[in-house]
Amino acid sequence: MSGAGRTDDGHGRAGRMLSGLAVAVGCVLFLGGFVWGALLYQPYTVPTDSMAPTIGRGDRVLAQRIDGGDVRRGDIVVFKDKVWGDSPMVKRVVGTGGDTVACCDGKGRLTVDGKPIEEPYLQATGPASPTAFSATVPEGQLFLLGDHRNDSVDSRGHLTDTSHGSVPRGAVKARVDATAWPVGGWGMMDRPESFAALPGGTSQPGPLPLVLTAVVVGAVLILGGAAYGPVARIVTPRRREEVPAHG
């Protein structure tokens, strides 16, 4: 019986060690994921319908802090430019320095350097813009439009400015990677395929999935490790105490 007791005690010690290790690793992943996310991402609330249906009024988005030089066509960015107002704005980049952005071609599509752009994310099914326009984007600048072209104050409204409606790359504060709220609309932002064939291509998604995975796995390890002791006491049968024989 003493051998069985030592075996049970050895299993118990191993279980406690593994549960402690799981909790320790879980804490590193959980807290590390939160810190990593806080350093890279910032939440924003979108105040208008100008990016509908991609992002609705009042939606909370997670935007990765990036340098303006990393912005590519098709990105949805958060920017602030004094010419446009005092509040951060959220728009989609459709043109970069040197591009000629125009609308519309014979099929009602936006064109970049004469190449038609398919935009399945637009709110309306009609022309890509209710008003015709053409602008050449200065070097180091970005041309920005909302996805709800009938209800968006964007580069089209600033065409008479010296920058021809564009904003400096340095005005960009972050790039939207995902919608976080409402929960039913949560999801990562797709990179539009129609911009991929243009020079520079599209940007790569940020590390948000890895951040979320670290947090979730960490939480599971913490809960699993902490639950080991109570669960082990419930499922492990107690050894019967031996009653010494008399006579």
TrEMBL record:
UniProt keyword Hydrolase present: yes
SUPFAM superfamilies: LexA/Signal peptidase (SSF51306)
Membrane topology (UniProt): Single-pass type II membrane protein
Originating species: Streptomyces aureoversilis
This enzyme's EC code(s): 3.4.21.89
Name this polypeptide is given: Signal peptidase I
Source organism phylogeny: Bacteria, Bacillati, Actinomycetota, Actinomycetes, Kitasatosporales
Recorded catalytic activity of this chain's protein: Cleavage of hydrophobic, N-terminal signal or leader sequences from secreted and periplasmic proteins
Residues in coiled coil: none
One Pfam match: Peptidase_S26
Family matches, as InterPro entries: LexA/Signal_pep-like_sf, Pept_S26A_signal_pept_1, Peptidase_S26
Top-level division of the source organism's lineage: Bacteria
Primary localization class, coarse: membrane
One term of GO molecular function: signal peptidase activity
Top-level EC class as recorded in UniProt: hydrolase
Keyword Protease: yes
